[in-house]
Each structure stands twice: as C-alpha cells, then as structure tokens.
Amino acid sequence: MATKTAAARSGRGTTPTYRCAECGWTTAKWVGRCGECQAWGTVEETGQPVARTTAAAVVTQVAQRIADVDATTAAFQATRIDELDRVLGGGLVPGAVILLAGEPGVGKSTLLLDVAARVARLGRDVLYVTGEESAAQVKLRAERIAAVADTLYLSAETDLGQALGQVEKIRPALLIVDSVQTLSSAAVDGSAGGVTQVREVAASLINAAKSTNMTTLLVGHVTKDGSIAGPRLLEHLVDVVCQFEGERHSRLRLLRAVKNRYGPTDEVGCFDLTDAGIEGLADPSGLFVSRTKDPVSGTCITVTLEGRRPLLAEVQALLAESANAQPRRATSGLDSARVAMLLAVLQQRASLSLSKDDSYVATVGGVKLSEPATDLAVALAVASAKTNQPLPARLIAFGEVGLAGEVRPVPGISRRISEAERLGFTHAVVPASPDGPGPVPKGFTVREVSTLTEALALIF
C-alpha cells in the first residue's frame, strides 16, 4: 500500500500518454486533433510511461584519442558526376547515409541509377533495392540511360529483413534504397510509410551502413507542401539531406544540400533530364537567356547566386492597358508579392503610372528567382516595357530595391561581374557599396547607383 501511495504521489506510471500515428507528437491527454501535423483522429494511447534507468555496460571498444583515429577510411570517393560531387563536397563518404528527396517524376531514381552504374564501373559492388518497381522495370530504364554494369545488383524488396539479408550476402560498397517509405519491418506495427515504420527502417539501415562502412543512398518522398514525408527524426539521423527540384515543363533539375556533415550546404548542382538519361550542366546560364537578334523592350539580364554559383537569368515584362477596374498582376518564376511591391515603388518613387496597366513579369527557361538581388532587373524591365525603350545590349543589372527607392548592396558583386564578362557582357549597373564593386575585368564598365531613380536616369 505504501509503495502504491508513493507511486501515486510521485505521478509515475499512473497517467497514460498519447501519440500521433502520423508525426509522433506526444501529449499527456487525448485530443481529437494532433497539435503538430493538425491531422484528425490520429492520436492514440501508447500505455503508461515507465521510468527506467540504464546501468553501465561492459565496454567492448575503448574510446580513442582523436589524434589516433584513422581518418583515411572516411575519405571522399568521387562518383564521376561532377555536379553531384560538388553538392556532396567531393563525393561519397564510406559509411555515410544520404537522403535524396524530391517530388514524383523529378528524376530521383534516374539520377541514383546513373550513380550506381558509375560506381559499379569502378570495380565496386553496388546493390540497388527497389520497392516501387520490379527488377525488370529497373533493367529497362538502365538500358535506356546506359546504366548497365557487371557489379550492379538489383533486388525488388519491400521487407526490411530481406533487404538486410541481401546486404549481408553481397556486402556492397554502395547501397541504394528506392524508397525508404516503401520498406517495412515485421518487428514493428504500422503500414509502410508510417512514422513507426520509417523510423525503424531508417535506424536499421543506418546501423548497417555504419557497422560495415557502406555508403547508403535513400530516396525519400515529399508531401504536398514540399517537406520530406515521415518523421522529422529521419532528417536528423542521416548525414546528408539533399533536395532534388525541377519543373515538369523544364528539363533543368537543381540539386541542393539542405544538410551536409561532410561539406557545404550552399552549393547547387544543375542537371539536364532527357529521355536518354540525366547529365550534369557545368554552364546552365544559356538556358535562362533568350536569343533575339534585335533588342526588345521589357527585357533585362541579371545575375543571381544559386548557392555559391553565379547564374545569368533574363527577366521579361509586358504591360498592357487594362480593361478592368482592377489591373491584373501575373508573375512566373518570381515572387508575386515582391513584384507587386516593386510596381508600387516604381509608381511612387519613379513617377511611372502603372495603376491602369495589366502587368506580366516572367523569367526565361522556367528558372525561379527568389533572391532580392534580382529586384533592380525586374524594375528596369518594367520601366523598359512602360517606355517601350529597349535596354542597351550586353548590359546586366542586379541589386536589392527598398520601399524608399534605394538600391541596396548585395553579396558576391565581383563574382557576378566575372560571370557576366565571361559570357560576353560588357556593362553592369550595380548597387553602390562602400568597398566598391571589387576587381573589374579589363574592358568591362561598371556603374554604381544608390537609388532606383538614379538607375532609370542613367539608362533611359
């Protein structure tokens, strides 16, 4: 009786806990709607919490001094795909677990199948486990993109135990799982893709990778809002998280490292996805610039930084007299709210009458420009369309525009200028900076402006 009273007084083991089956969120009382993922009817009782302590175990491997650890076993191994190696920091690290997420049809499986074939051609065993296709379907795609190799093994499995058995039998240097949401373990409850199953599958694969020094590439699904499906714990467990992005109507694909324990997270890899496979693009700027014989009003070239890589992009603007009381504001590849702000700044600070015009502002090639440094190019393109005066040929412009009409400095001015000069441009309008624009290539003209009005007066 005394023990029970003490337990009741301490509050241990008397109150059940509840957990969301979708995201793993826990609460002390039952609720109809999850407080984390906002899903209805997913909170279930998980039993009474039991306070446990873990006793110290016998040490089987004594801790080493950091100076005595052999770091050569974790050296980068190049995949022979330069754009992928750039994002990863140099290549694949033995024992690393990499999560590649992206929307359906963006090319995740095609890229990893190409990686598998290239690594296999280097004389290493590669195991490709697919839970979404049959081995014959993967073979057909491999033949189409020329990704057939002697030491590349295929296994169509959805059971985690069978997949781990294949790993023990083949002992591959590289394991690719397509995808982590399709595997399930018979040791835990829940369907494949659920929070419990994804956590168990990821933990087992990570344990196998670390114990055998095997590089593991996991394909991950995404939700409607673009986040990685499954528990957030998955992103914490893996070593590298990469996002594969691209528009369905465009061949361009961008690979970004969201998390990287072995390299930078500000690098971007560019790929060209075609029927014959996927190839890295060392110079993708030409995809984002239109080729016109004569200058056209309403167009302006800018240089944006994707990670640490400068890319040229073209902004186009078209103004037409509106037949409605409320003019239309349409954008493509740009933030609509930011474009609306720039239109207001042009009207109030530069005295351009835009209140009765429908405005259409878009980028070329389907590229998305989210960097504030593209503000000046958007403003100049709109002003060019309004005055029907084309901008000078071989001119680029970049800079952030504020609500007061000022042009603010942006990072990487010298890198942007060097990229523009390499592609044949000779003039640039850049924001004024206390340190100046930095080194300017020979024969290249740079004009610094501090306000939007000054930039418009300089050009028009």
UniProtKB/TrEMBL annotation:
Keyword Hydrolase on entry: yes
Region (Lon-protease-like): 358-460
Cellular component annotations (GO), alphabetically ordered: cytosol
Signal sequence, renumbered to the chain: none
GO molecular function: ATP binding; ATP-dependent DNA damage sensor activity; damaged DNA binding; hydrolase activity; zinc ion binding
Residue runs in coiled coils: none
Free-text note on domains in this protein's UniProt record: The middle region has homology to RecA with ATPase motifs including the RadA KNRFG motif, while the C-terminus is homologous to Lon protease.
Official protein name in the record: DNA repair protein RadA
Source organism of the structure: Arthrobacter crusticola
Gene name of the record: radA
